[in-house]
Amino acid sequence: MMEITLNHYLILSTLLFAIGLIGVMRRKNLLMLFFATEILLNSVNIAFAAISHYYGDLTGQMFAFFVIAIAASEVAVGLGLLIIWFKRTNNIDLDAMTSMRG
Amino acid sequence: MSLFALLFGGALVSPLIKNMALLKLFALLILLWSGYALSQGAGVGLVFFEQSSYVRLFEAVVLIVSAALILHLDKEDHGTITQLLFIAAASMALLESTTLLSFVITFEAVSIISFVLVSNIKDATQAEGAIKMFFAGALASGIILFGLGLFAVSGHDFNASALSVDDTFGMIALFIILIGIFYKLTIFPMHTWAADTYAQVSHTNAAILSAIVKTVVALATFKIFMPFLAQLGEMPIYLLAALAVITMTLGNILALYQKSIARILAYSSIAHAGYMLIPFAAVASTYAPTGLLYIAVAYIFMQSAVFLVLEILRKELEIKTLDDLKGLGQKNPLYALLFTVQLFSLAGIPLLAGFIAKAVAFYAGVDAGLWPLIMIALLNSALSVGYYAWIVKHIYFDEAQTKGVITGRFTALLGQLILLGGTIYFGVIAADIFGVLS
Fold it and tell me: I want to staple B281 with a disulfide (CB 3.0 to 4.6 A). Which of A41, B236, B241, B262 is the partner?
């Protein structure tokens, strides 16, 4: 039975961050893009919680709470923007944003 | 009374006031009261926040520019006043933050409020600009938090007041955080969203984003990261210098090819982000903080002024492209003059704030021994006169088309005069800014 160490948590966090980053770069559907940014923001929480446990102080956990608050407010604002965009264009595709190329 | 509490409380109360004229008066009174509190030495007044004479001057400037912006607002910009007060409150906190923790949290506060600001949307184009900015901002937040995570992994304390690291891991972490911040500052290669957003959102919002938010972030970043930048070796400094060169050159060259005035100003804003990066690279010089402060002060006045004049021109005369500007000088000499002076200041014509700002920043670069960087920056400055003068040529020297006369409101004109006063005052009297550091 393998023991789960700090490294495993950090690797998980980095993998999630990479998934989020690739999602932001590659996805065309705005809702999916939005989920990708959420994965990106929340991946960091795992790292903070693990580090906090490893060093035995609470700064990391405290910061994880800040990150949750930041991510939550970004969800609120971002979903609002998406709804406005959808109402105007009936479309949530990134390729529809062509009014200003070049 | 605490500056932050004043502005924040004002912002919380402001949605209750339905009458626009009353609301404007209320916001102006709040700003005036904050200005008075500031002159009495009030700051944010929380733990991890500290005021110095360096940020006090800039806080005063932010309050003045916010007042000028509020004077410009229309009936339908009801929410903008609330958001502007929130941005002012968060800016004060960001400017005074002393540790990485308080810096990141207030930085996020500023960026989330700017998302709310751009969500005040009237048509699909503005929605597009807002969404582009949102995703760029969310990605930047992710990168900054990831860097902060790395910083914590390497065993550093982000409550430490002076940012100094001696291990590679911590250095990489701080560099990742800087990359995230550069996203907001529209540094190459993260500049693409800015050109669209600044040109697409309403010009008033573009003024707030590209003038207030950008300068506040630049100044606060420099303040926090200065000890870290100062201990860097040659390679990272050359990297910063290269980023500065690419950003300003790209901004200036792309601005030359634009037809829409808003897009010219957006690219000019990217070019100015490049100039703001010079003091970052020239951190070895003792003039670097003064240089950045001067650029920030000059830029906040002139950039908000040009976007606000453009808003008036768009609203009253439907002016959007360079061709629409023809004959403005004959029909509306006052607004043409206001626009021209601020454009000349952006270009760096002497006796205006933009000139001394560039001179001080470039001198800091020379002092730090970055000759090639400053040579390219000077060439860029000359290049930028090309498109600013091209706008002025359209205003004064082209045949007039049939255009109405602007019947602008008195308050908007007053706001413009405040901004004009700032541009001229800091162009003539430099002692105020040199004084804060000596």
Answer: B241
* Alpha helix positions (H), A27-58: 30-55
Q: Can you give the pLDDT of all 438 residues of chain B as single tens digits?
A: 789 999 999 999 999 998 889 999 999 999 999 999 999 888 888 888 888 888 899 999 999 999 999 999 887 788 899 999 999 999 999 999 999 989 999 999 999 999 999 988 888 888 888 988 999 999 999 999 999 888 888 878 877 777 778 788 888 999 999 999 998 899 988 888 898 899 989 999 999 999 999 999 999 999 999 988 888 888 889 999 999 999 999 999 999 988 899 999 999 999 999 999 999 999 989 899 999 999 999 999 999 999 999 999 888 888 888 888 888 888 888 889 999 999 999 998 888 999 999 999 999 999 998 899 999 999 999 999 989 999 999 888 887 776 678 877 888 999 999 999 999 999 888 877 787 776
How many Å apart are CA B316 and CA B239, to the nearest integer? 45
Taking the whole predicted model, whether its pTM rises above 0.90 is answered as: yes
Q: Which ranges of B97-167 does DSSP label H, i.e. alpha helix?
A: 100-118, 124-153
Residue B271 touches chain A, beta carbons under 8 Å = no
Residue of chain B whose alpha carbon sits nearest to that of A39: B142
Cβ contact B125–A99 (<8 Å): yes
List chain A residues with CB under 8 Å of B116: 77
Task: Please tell me the distance in Å from A1's CA to the nearest CA on chain B.
Answer: 26
Pick B124's closest partner by Cβ from A40, A74, A88: A88
How many domains, in total, are found in chain B?
1
User: How many domains, in total, are found in chain A?
Assistant: 1
In the chain, the amino acid numbered B361 is A
User: What is the domain extent for residue A33?
Assistant: 6-95
| Full residue range of the structural domain in which residue B168 is found | 3-435
Report yes or no on A43 lying in a domain.
yes
| Interface pTM, i.e. ipTM | 0.92
Q: Is residue A63 part of a domain?
A: yes
